[in-house]
Fold this sequence. Notes:
By secondary structure, the chain is an alpha/beta fold. It has one domain (27-231): Isochorismatase-like (Rossmann fold), CATH 3.40.50. It has helices spanning 12-21, 42-45, 52-58, 65-84, 105-108, 153-159, 172-185, 202-215, 222-231, and strands at residues 33-38, 88-93, 138-142, 164-170, 189-198, 218-220. It has a six-stranded parallel β-sheet with strand order 3-2-1-4-5-6.
Amino acid sequence: xxxxxxxxxxxxxxKEVFAAAxxxxxxxxxxxxxxxxxxxxxAFCGDRPEPILESIKRWRNSCGEESWVAIARIKRLIDRxxxxxxPVIYTTxxxxxxxxxxxxxxxxxxxxSEAPKSASNRNGYDIVDEIAPSPKDLVxxxxxxxxxxxxxxxxxxxxxxxxxVVVTGTTTSGCVRATVLDAFSHNYRVAMVEDGCFDRxxxxxxITLCDMNAKYADVVKTEEVLAYFDTLxxxxxxxxxxxxxx
Length: 246
């Protein structure tokens, strides 16, 4: 087993405290999962793989080339979820044209006034083409970090009779973390895909995974989730038809 990504950031005291206090127990997967794909849009990935310091010149929120490594893994998870008939729920941002509704975001970023589509002809909130939603998938538009806050997420999961979520996307320390915490607070079992999440900060990515694994989620690898999906029966869910109503 490879070393956990966060271990190099922990002191020996930290490791001893976690072990002695009992944190990090494995909760296990649920029986009826939804796959959540959080904010994998051009604003956070850029429009091509390139080093982060180059990418953020044009896309201020970009996580750089690491985004595209994770996207390849997220695509595998989406494809397997589709094959098994599991719900796939995407989130992405939404703003008024005048950016009035950016709220607190405007106070914490000096480049907030830049339009999401200013870097190219792509709208920053468009989900990247490589993992574009299928007609049966659900897309939630949000204005705050959590995929649950002010959105129909809970209603969708209730309608689908989900007992658990598998979370991917970005940023690990921001919108992914907020979504994981809200899912945990709603008593869903939560799995967080370590190599299917990404962040602009390597340290924040690792420490967030540590925090989530200690208390709120099972941090797992893509291969383990794929194997888990394979154990589930097909036809567990009544998904949207994807056919426009006449």
